[in-house]
């Protein structure tokens, strides 16, 4: 009986991955040959929704009916909510501070928030620590923005991770899940998403870095999902990472290499997140669900 159940789960895992990679890489190929920007734009807009759609289609086609790691009742675990809403921001700020300490000439002391909306508006940053605290608190309270990432987390952590944990065991599943999640990003990265195409070895070095980033972030998101049985905390954490993670670069004159930072998609910018991910990974039990 267990052998039959595992066969069904393996089939569901394969189908989910086929669906998600077919969409992402299919759009990437279309963009590569047309160069019109429409396929790339559609991929960027739909990237958050493709995972949950793939999960729904997979469940519809296969006989595998595992429940999602999903519950709206995030208030039931206040400690994990606080961890998810606040800790990533602190770690991102620490990473950006380390980056600016190493590359002091890149720190402008001016927050060019106008870049986000296409103008030249700026804000003078008199006290970087107060500025950082305000951003961390603001990100922690921006629940609607955080939950934009729920579609991605339902697919990758809420659905796929639960299947992979039963097949591979939890630790192995977390690594595989993060690696495959990284692979799904590569068509976007190839065309310059998140990274400068002026980086050394771009776009290939950018793509390799994105896989590492996804394995680091994926470990953090998987940890809170496994810990609580609820991917809503991962969606909150994901939203905070995306919100605060875009801020450090707005404090720069010029960037040495986005492979380094200051955003958490660079190795220095993500350094404290990497340490946290390693510690959390070691706390994950090896046993299957």
From TrEMBL:
Keywords: Hydrolase, Membrane, Metalloprotease, Protease, Transmembrane, Transmembrane helix. Signal peptide: none annotated. Residues 132-244 form the CAAX prenyl protease 2/Lysostaphin resistance protein A-like domain. InterPro entries: MmRce1-like (IPR042150), Rce1/LyrA-like_dom (IPR003675). The chain crosses the membrane at residues 12-33, 39-59, 80-102, 122-143, 174-193, 205-226, 233-253, 265-282. One of its GO terms (molecular function) is metallopeptidase activity. One of its GO terms (biological process) is CAAX-box protein maturation. It holds the Pfam family Rce1-like. This is CPBP family intramembrane metalloprotease. The lineage of its organism: Bacteria, Bacillati, Bacillota, Clostridia, Lachnospirales.
